[in-house]
Design a protein that fits this description.
Layout lengths: L1 H10 L25 E4 L3 H13 L6 E4 L6 H13 L2 E3 L5 H19 L3 E8 L9 H13 L5 E7 L6 E7 L4 E7 L2
Parallel strand pairs: 1-2, 2-3, 4-5
Antiparallel strand pairs: 4-6, 6-7
C-alpha cells in the first residue's frame, strides 16, 4: 500500500504533493515531522521511532494517517500519546467496502446470534503478510463481538500466493448459512 501511494504521488499528483521521505530510502525521517501529513503503511516497528520522536518534539506536528497492523500494547500506547499532540487516524483498513462490511456486521450480528447462528471468519492474504489474523480480521471480530458479545467467532487465517486480501464471514445456522464477503483488488 505504501509503495502504491508513493507511486501515485510521484506520477499523478507530483504537482500537488511533495514526498518528504520514503521508507527504505536514505531520507532523514525527521523531515517527515515538517510535513503537513505523514502517511504510513509500513510496520509498527518502522513507525514507532517516528511516533516517539514526534512525541518529544514541540508543535506544530503533522497529522498522521497510519494503516499498518500488528501493533503491540506498548506501541499502541505510543500512538495514543501521539494522538494527544496531533491528529492521528490509525485504521487496520481504510477501504470503503471494508467499512461497509463492518457496518453490515454490526447491524446483523445481534439478530443472527439471537437466531442461533455461529460466526466463522476466513482471513486470506498473500504469503508475505506478517500478521495473522490480519488487522482487518481483528476489526471484523471486534465488530461481531461488540454487537453479539455472547456469540464467539472463530478465525481461520490463510497466507498463500499473492492474494491482496479477502475476508469472508459466514454465519452457520441450524439449517442454512449466510456469508458476507469482501475481496480487495
Amino acid at each position: 500500500m505504501g509503495q502504491w501511494i508513493l507511486r501515485l504521488t510521484q506520477l499523478e499528483y507530483a504537482s500537488q504533493i511533495r514526498v518528504a521521505a520514503a521508507a527504505g530510502s536514505k531520507d532523514d525521517p525527521s523531515a517527515l515531522l515538517r510535513a503537513d501529513v505523514v502517511i504510513d503503511f509500513s510496520t509498527p516497528d518502522a513507525m514507532i521511532g517516528l511516533a516517539q520522536l514526534a512525541i518529544t518534539q514541540g508543535s506544530p506536528l503533522p497529522a498522521f494517517v497510519i494503516g499498518s497492523t500488528g501493533w503491540n500494547p506498548h506501541q499502541t500506547d505510543a500512538l495514543r500519546q501521539l494522538g494527544q499532540k496531533t491528529q492521528v487516524l490509525a485504521a487496520s483498513n481504510i477501504e470503503t467496502g471494508v467499512l461497509a462490511f463492518l457496518e453490515i456486521v454490526r447491524a446483523s450480528a445481534p439478530l443472527l446470534a439471537k437466531l442461533g447462528y455461529e460466526a466463522v471468519l476466513l482471513d486470506t492474504h498473500h504469503k508475505h503478510k506478517k500478521d495473522a489474523p490480519s488487522g482487518t480480521a481483528l476489526a471484523i471480530m471486534k465488530a461481531t463481538q461488540a454487537a453479539a458479545p455472547h456469540n464467539p467467532i472463530q478465525i481461520q487465517s490463510i497466507r498463500a500466493g499473492e492474494v491482496i486480501g479477502e475476508h469472508e464471514l459466514t454465519y452457520y445456522g441450524p439449517g442454512d448459512q449466510l456469508t458476507i464477503r469482501h475481496s480487495a483488488q
